[in-house]
Specification:
Layout (H helix, E strand, L loop, with lengths): L3 E6 L8 H9 L41 H4 L10 E12 L5 E12 L8 H5 L5 E3 L6 E3 L9 H5 L32 H4 L6 H5 L5 E5 H7 L19 E4 L3
Parallel strand pairs: 1-7
Antiparallel strand pairs: 1-6, 2-3, 4-5
């Protein structure tokens, strides 16, 4: 098995969220609520989980045109690729009463880290989370997911996702019950020789993807750790360039 994983250059990340949007766009049909968005007349709609799901919010008042189907993908509730902001610094008041700010702002972009020893696999009582034998990517067959949330609780980075945060309140018989979904490393793209959508979309090339051996050779100064990232002792397959 050639273990695939990510490289993240914190110097290059500007927090634009393009990687997150690209993930939501490419994986629109894999989102957790995709299969329940069909009415009897076969018109697609979003489940009523928040105001962003109301198609009337997307009607142009001048023309009556509805942009709902275009923009719904950007409201994919599952956040497989997440960008966070870290602020460090201090504020001091000078003798003249003017405040001086010394603040460092940096970003962190993470998805599933497709660990060597995934905590989610050990936590799942249904045994439906596995590592792909060829790529080492962590995948889930959620057809028998019972929405217990143990996988999400076990993951240090919140990679397992449910489209509704109140997923535990749904009955097992409810067809709309959220089932776990997660980053697949865009295995469908990888099989075609393409990079994951998040990596391909990053205009500042803060992300890279490939065999971990090849990534370490390509970025010899990369670190296994980052100030803003705890490895968790389960072998996350990601290396970093710390912001200088």
């Amino acid at each position: 098995m050639s273990q695939l994983g990510f490289y993240f250059n914190q110097d290059r990340c500007v927090g634009c969220q393009t990687c997150s949007s690209a993930c939501k766009n490419w994986n629109e049909e894999r989102r957790g609520d995709a299969k329940i968005n069909i009415r009897e007349d076969d018109e697609e709609y979003m489940s009523a989980v928040g105001e962003q799901d109301n198609g009337e919010n997307y009607i142009n008042p001048d023309t009556g045109a509805n942009n709902y189907e275009l923009f719904r993908k950007y409201y994919m509730k599952e956040n497989w690729r997440r960008v966070s902001t870290v602020l460090d610094g201090s504020v001091s008041e000078g003798s003249t009463g003017i405040f001086r700010y010394n603040v460092d702002k940096r970003f962190l972009s993470v998805s599933c880290n497709h660990c060597d020893e995934p905590a989610c696999i050990k936590a799942c009582p249904m045994g439906i989370i596995t590592k792909d034998s060829e790529t080492g990517l962590v995948l889930v067959d959620n057809s028998t997911c019972i929405s217990c949330g143990k996988c999400q609780g076990a993951c240090p980075w919140g990679a397992p996702q449910f489209y509704d945060s109140k997923y535990k309140e749904y009955s097992l018989e409810n067809a709309a019950r959220p089932r776990m979904t997660k980053c697949t490393g865009c295995l469908d793209r990888v099989k075609e020789g393409l990079r994951p959508a998040c990596v391909a979309a990053c205009w500042n090339r803060a992300l890279d993807f490939g065999s971990m051996d090849e990534l370490r050779a390509k970025y010899p100064s990369a670190s296994e750790s980052l100030v803003d990232f705890e490895r968790g002792g389960i072998g996350p397959n990601i290396i970093f360039k710390q912001k200088s």
